[in-house]
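Q: Here's a chain of 85 amino acids. Please give me its 3D structure as tokens.
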Amino acid sequence: MAESAGMILFAGGVTFTNEWLQTRTPNFRIPVATLAASLFTYGLEKIYPKAANGLAVIVLITVFVTPIHGKSPLQTIVDVLPKPR
């Protein structure tokens, strides 16, 4: 599998899990959109690998820091980790 498509699939998994944790209901539109985006980046990587990898990195960064339905995935991770005493 292409490197960029793998990053897009990881970002989609993080988004799906975060949304599920926030709303308590799975949103099955996210996996469909993730598959479409990963197929796009897979094709783009065959034509121009640098652009595909750059786009995938931008998507990963955006997914981790953008709050959707309350908290971003990074905020959720910080809430789950134990606080120092």
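Q: Can you summarize the key feature?
A: The two ends are 44 Å apart (CA to CA).
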